[in-house]
Amino acid sequence: MYKNALFTLVLVLATAASSFAQTEMADTMRSNGKIYVVVVVLATIFAGIFAYLVYLDRKMTRIEKEK
Questions:
Q1: Residue 46 phi/psi, 5° resolution?
Q2: What is the pLDDT of residue 56?
Q3: How many domains does the chain have?
Q4: Average confidence (pLDDT) per 10 residues, the chain, 67 residues
């Protein structure tokens, strides 16, 4: 029981420290104008993953219809 509480406390503290560092980094990138590059790269990655999933779904549907 104490191990779970200790683990939870460590996890919460690590998350809080990480979010503070990320906020500071995001502010720095926003002030330099590089945050838009990060947003475009992430959007491209997610669009690629979405397109691949649609492709797989269509392929699986076609295979299911053949059987």
A1: -65, -35
A2: 94
A3: 1
A4: 70 69 71 83 94 93 91
Q: What backbone torsions phi and psi does residue 41 show, to the nearest 5 degrees? A: -65, -45
Structural domain containing residue 13 = 2-66
pTM given for the model: 0.55
CA neighbours closer than 13 Å in the CB half-sphere of residue 57: 6
Q: Shortest CA distance to 41 belongs to which of 29, 31, 57? A: 29
| Integer Cα distance of 12 and 35 in angstroms | 26
Give dist(CA 33, CA 27) in Å, integer: 10
Residue 25's contacts (CB-CB under 8 Å, 6 or more residues apart) are none
For residue 54, give the amino acid letter: V
Measured distance CA(37)–CA(29) in Å, rounded: 9
User: What DSSP state is assigned to residue 11?
Assistant: H
